[in-house]
Design a protein that fits this description.
heterodimer, A: about 375 residues, alpha/beta, Rossmann fold, 2 domains, 17 helices, about 20% strand, B: about 350 residues, DNA polymerase, domain 1, 15 helices, elongated, DNA-binding (chain B), Rad51_C (chain B), HR_Repair_Mediator (chain B), DNA recombination (chain B), DNA repair (chain B)
């Protein structure tokens, strides 16, 4: 809408021509100036500028919907009311049915916690036929860290849905619906994104996974504004992609360690901070999401995967629909499995923290999918 | 007022001055046709200029009544009387309402910011529902405009909050009136959803266009009592290289919103994101969009984690004292913090 030509908006010919003559071609050009600047630039009266801009604005402005209409549309048009069920009962209930369509869902957690396992499971679920609770569509899996293992994918499939995957030819069909892309640079990634946009609707793509967003951006950019900007452009694009094609988008994020917790305070909290400073304990390093706060604002749902004293938890850290719940889980041959469907409600800010305690002990045991495969073979 | 201040194009202004029309008086005294010939414009345009000059001149000359020295002004006494009748939209959290003096105030622009997941969108949705509480229940019985720039508006959640709100109203009338059945039939969650006008904005251009268009929209849809922008930041943070232009556009937008707030007597709530800033040798959190933006809003509320509780802090307000209050986000929406509930019960 923003790139609509001013000429085609039905403005009076005389004023439309003035806009064109001053090289203000699209609505974006016009709206990027204040009214006063336009008055000077176009050399016309204030009244004319105001009325012209009011007209341009009305044409460009997005349509109005009532929330009721929105709800009715969702219920009518979409399978499962716009959610991809994760088949993890507790999580699905908390999320009102699963991963919602049209928004970005982020998985963040330390290495080896099970982010990729979760992604593999979800890509299977999206490709399953509708009769088994899937979306019966294709999946695009952007695998930046080269962690995608088809063998593990099939294994998860056989163990979770034996009735489908043991049928002849079905494993091939299911796996055939998952398209893995491996861009090596940010520019390559951007290019494939634009290609995806075209094919999303034609190809019946029902899920987009990017594993991991952090690896892509951190690899190329120094910390700072250039990274923020590079990321920002892509975030807006991925968001619009999710929205217009109404598909769920899963992104993973890494963690990094940070010392002290000053950067989590506002200046008006300075007093409390000075008391904390006396306490040496806060100088311990703790884990934070690798992509910063700007990114965290952009995702709609954030799931934190963490380990506390050897137990893995999946936490609903940010979600506009769900209470802050934590679910203990383990990784088995059939992928991520919840140990408890009720979850533990976490009222406080610990819902946002990322812990990695005792994972090292068990990570050797469950982290690598190779291990799981080995145990099966022996 | 001088000729230079007339709202006409630069070239006409230049011609006027070149032809010797240096005062408004000079323009007013000449005839339209003479003016047209002097500055080489059509008769109708000359007429227009004369009208504008006459209007500007009328503003300048004091007009009899001694109360208004300058046109369009209002005395502090009148403003005080106006403020007595100003209305508030409850946040559903009593503690928060208390420090805000009753809730989010109409005719004001309020900015609410905080870290991801603290509950900004939740407050936004809660306000969009609460504005519709009928007058009989101490509400405004208005409608809401929700401008979503981030795509985080969840209808399912609105439905939850709306249902909880209606339950609360039923309980309220159960306590105080006995005619609650009549009221209960009137309000249905669908009615609440119907009165939330939702706009999904996908670029900063659309955001500006929409704000321009709102004036007309509100004229057509009376009873809009709140505009929620969730968030004002997102698009302006993503694709902008020219920071000076960003500041100009943002402040123009803020002014337009302020104008809407005054004109239609409605509340404007802008949600903002946070960023880290290097102050005094350490990184601190601060609301996004920079320092010049922080002047644009009348009130500024920052949401933050205080230990294990969510708190709201009044960072800036011309009339309220700076204070903080705990709140919590429950499945029914924004409510009092649990610990403060316990305190009240103990007393």
């Amino acid at each position: 809408m923003a790139n609509k030509l001013i000429k085609q908006m039905g403005l009076p010919k005389s004023i439309a021509n003035i806009f064109t003559a001053r090289n203000i071609i699209t609505a974006k050009d016009a709206l990027s100036h204040t009214e006063f600047e336009l008055m000077e630039l176009l050399d016309v009266d204030k009244e004319e500028v105001t009325s012209a801009m009011a007209h341009v604005s009305e044409v460009v402005c997005p349509p109005c919907q009532t929330a009721l209409l929105l709800l009715e549309q969702r219920v009518r048009n979409e399978t499962l009311a716009g959610h991809l069920p994760t088949h993890l009962k507790g999580l699905d209930e908390a999320l009102c049915g699963g991963i919602p369509f049209g928004v970005l869902t982020e998985l963040v957690g330390p290495a080896g916690i099970g982010k990729t396992q979760f992604c593999l499971k979800l890509s299977l679920l999206a490709s399953l036929p509708a009769s088994c609770g899937g979306l019966d569509g294709r999946v695009i899996y952007i695998d930046i860290e080269s962690k995608f293992r088809s063998k593990r994918l099939i294994e998860i499939g056989i163990n979770s849905f034996p009735e489908i995957f043991l049928k002849k030819g079905m494993a091939q069909e299911m796996a055939g619906r998952i398209l893995v892309l491996r861009p090596t640079s940010l520019s390559e990634f951007a290019e494939s994104l634009y290609q995806i946009k075209v094919s999303l609707l034609q190809q019946q793509v029902k899920l987009l996974i990017i594993d991991s967003m952090a690896a892509l951006v951190l690899g190329e950019h120094e910390c700072g504004t250039s990274r923020q900007q590079a990321l920002g452009v892509h975030v807006s694009f991925i968001k619009s992609l999710a929205e217009f094609s109404r598909i769920p988008v899963i992104l993973t994020n890494q963690v990094r360690s940070q010392f002290g917790d000053e950067s989590r305070m506002y200046s008006f909290q300075a007093q409390s901070r000075s008391t904390i400073k006396d306490n040496p304990a806060t100088y311990d390093s703790h884990l934070v999401a690798a992509l910063g706060i700007n990114w965290a604002h952009a995702v709609t749902i954030r799931l934190v995967l963490e380990a506390r004293s050897g137990q893995r938890f999946i936490k609903l850290a940010k979600s506009p629909i769900s209470p802050p719940l934590a679910f203990p889980f383990k990784i088995t041959s059939s992928g991520v499995v919840l140990l408890d469907d009720d979850g533990i409600e976490m009222k406080g800010s610990e819902i946002n923290t990322i812990q990695c305690q005792g994972l090292s002990l068990s990570s050797l045991a469950v982290n690598s999918m190779e291990y799981v495969l080995c145990t099966k073979n022996t | 007022m001088e000729v230079g201040m007339l709202p006409i194009s630069a070239s006409k202004r230049g011609k006027l001055l070149a032809a010797g029309y240096t005062s408004l008086d000079a323009i007013a005294r000449t005839s339209a046709s003479l003016l047209a010939r002097d500055i080489e414009v059509s008769d109708s345009e000359a007429c227009e200029i004369q009208n504008l000059a006459a209007k500007a001149g009328a503003l300048e000359t004091p007009n009899g009544t001694h109360t208004t020295v300058v046109g369009g002004g209002q005395t502090a006494w009148d403003m005080l009387n106006d403020e007595k009748f100003s209305s508030y939209i409850t946040t559903s959290c009593v503690d928060l309402d208390n420090i805000l003096g009753g809730g989010i105030k109409c005719k004001d622009v309020t900015e609410i910011g905080g870290v991801p997941g603290i509950g900004k969108t939740q407050i936004g949705i809660q306000l969009a529902v609460n504005v519709q509480i009928p007058q009989g229940y101490g509400g405004l019985g208005g409608k809401a405009i929700y401008i979503d720039t981030e795509g985080s508006f969840m209808v399912e959640r609105v439905l939850q909050i709306a249902e909880a709100c209606i339950e609360d109203m039923a309980e309220y009338s159960n306590h105080f009136h006995k005619d609650f059945q009549a009221c209960e039939v009137k309000m249905h969650p669908n009615n609440i959803l119907e009165n939330i006008f939702y706009f999904r904005v996908c670029s900063y251009t659309e955001q500006i266009a929409l704000i321009n268009y709102l004036d007309k929209f509100i004229m057509e849809n009376k009873d809009v009592k709140i505009i929620i922008v969730d968030s004002v930041t997102f698009h302006f943070r993503q694709d902008f290289d020219d920071m000076a232009l960003r500041t100009r556009l943002l402040s123009e937008m803020a002014l337009k919103l302020m104008k809407l707030a005054k004109k239609f007597c409605l509340a404007v709530v802008m949600l903002n994101q946070v960023t880290t800033k290097f102050i005094e040798g350490s990184f601190q959190l601060t609301l996004a969009l920079g320092d010049s933006w922080s002047h644009s809003c009348t009130n500024r509320i920052i949401l933050f984690w205080n230990g294990n509780e969510r708190h709201a802090f009044i960072d800036k307000s011309p009339s309220l004292k700076s204070a903080s209050a705990p709140y919590s986000v429950t499945s029914r929406g924004i409510r009092n913090s649990i610990s403060s509930c316990k305190r009240i019960k103990m007393m």
